[in-house]
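Lecture notes, unit on binding sites. The following record was shown on slide 14. It pairs a sequence with zinc ion.
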Amino acid sequence: MRTIPLLILLLSACLNLTTSNRVIADDAKSKAPTKLKGLLITGGCCHDYENQKRIITEGLSQRLSISWDIVHEGGSGKDHKVSVYQKEGWAKDYDIIVHNECFGGVTDDEFVKSVAAAHYGGTPGVFIHCALHSYRNSTKGADSWREAIGLTSVRHDKAKLSLDVVNQAPENPIMKAFPEKWETPNGELYQIDKIWENCTPLATAYSAENERDMVVIWSNKFGGTKMFGTSLGHHNETMNTDVWLDVVSRGVLWATNHLQENGKPEKGYEGTGVKPIVFGPIEAEPDPKFEKKN
Ligand SMILES: [Zn+2]
């Protein structure tokens, strides 16, 4: 007789356990930690980095599982030395460093060499647009930075215009979903003077000013570290497109070894879901103060 109530008690305990386990599992799912930790370095001359840091971090988080630290420094100057680069082991806590900075005036060779060295055999990197022209005034350091990128460029075509970007590697997982030809909304074409030995060109655009194709999307290996880059990204309207954000996301996944052959993120590395990134109203600059003189 005594075994029946005990059985009911045990069954009831099991049911409770199952229910509470499910609650914990659901809770864990909703608060699942992001898989990758990214550092975005941005700031400097000539571009709208305030909005670009939103496009990059929000756009990439929608497409892959990543959380961000952002270092935005240097105002609109060209010769700022990013503070975080001067901290010992600054790159070690991150899975990927995204460079969207524009500091062409820095001349400190040892500083520039140390930034490149942090990637060598270490943390993967992504180089966007003016990152290519950064540190070009460092006569002895610039080449270590360029070797990390995979390309050398010191100038751009004068015209600002839509570019026809041609997919040169449609079988590459980074480029499988990229159009055969992509007409960018707007563009500033970087002239490429050298393709370094371990660089793989992935897409090109034709320079009418130079009468030759320029690499605009590529991958690179630097001391075994995987690097990805695109010189496209002067204009927000080019950056804030599915094509641009998709290919840069695949670049990040490839560089961190989480891109599948079919061009999709490895299971568990999916993002939060693609939706438009809408900027708030642009705040008008205040008029210069009028001081009434008696
Ligand atoms: Zn630019």
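Take-home: Residues 46-47, 129-130, 188, 234 surround zinc ion (CB under 6 Å).
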